[in-house]
Amino acid sequence: MVTNAKAQAAAPPARGWYGVVLLGWLVPGGGHFLLKRPGRGALLLASVAIMFLLGLMMRGTMFQPQTGDVLTTIIYCGGFLGDLASGLFYLLTVWLGYAQPDMAGHVHDYGTKFLVAAGLLNVLAMVDAYEIATGEKE
Amino acid sequence: MPKMNLSHFEAAILFALFSSVVLGVITKRTDADRLRYGVRCFAYFVAALIGLGWLMKLGHG
Description:
The structure holds two protein chains of two kinds. Chain A is mainly alpha-helical. Chain A has helices spanning 2-10, 18-26, 30-34, 38-57, 70-84, 88-95, 106-133.
C-alpha cells in the first residue's frame, strides 16, 4: 500500500490522453511520437505499416460487418473492428479503392489475417500510449 | 499494387517478426529488456511454428 502511494506520488501528472489515443489510432505509433518516444513510435509505425502493406499485397480482404449466427457476427464484426483499428491505413485503403474482394487461397487468407493483425497490434500500441500518457508507465 | 506470393512458412515468419517487435516495444521498461523479450517472443513463435508443422505432418501420416 505504501509502495503504491509512493509510486503514484512519483508518477508524472496525468496528461490529456484523448489526443494521444486518437493520434495513435490514426497514425500507428503517433501517440508515442506525441509523448516524445520517437524510437518506439518509429518501430510501432514500421511494424504496423509493413504488416498492413503485406496484407494488401497478398490481396487480403477487408471485413464488412455482418450479423447472423453468433460465429458470423463475431468473425465479421470483430474482423471489421480489427481492420478499422489500423486507422488511416484502413481509411485510405477503403477510400482509394484498394480493398480486395474475398478470394480463395492460402495467400489471400494470410493477407486477410495480416490486415486484422496490423490493427490489433495498433490497439496494443494505443494502450501503451494511453498508459504512458496517464503516468501508469514511463 | 504488386501482388505477393508467400509460402506458409514465409508468411508465418513475417507475422512472428512484426508481432514480436510490437510485443517487445510495448511490454518492458528498458531497451535491453525490450530487445530480450522481443527476441524471446520471436523464438517462441518459430518454435511453435516448427512444432505444429511437424505435428500436422506426422498427423497426416
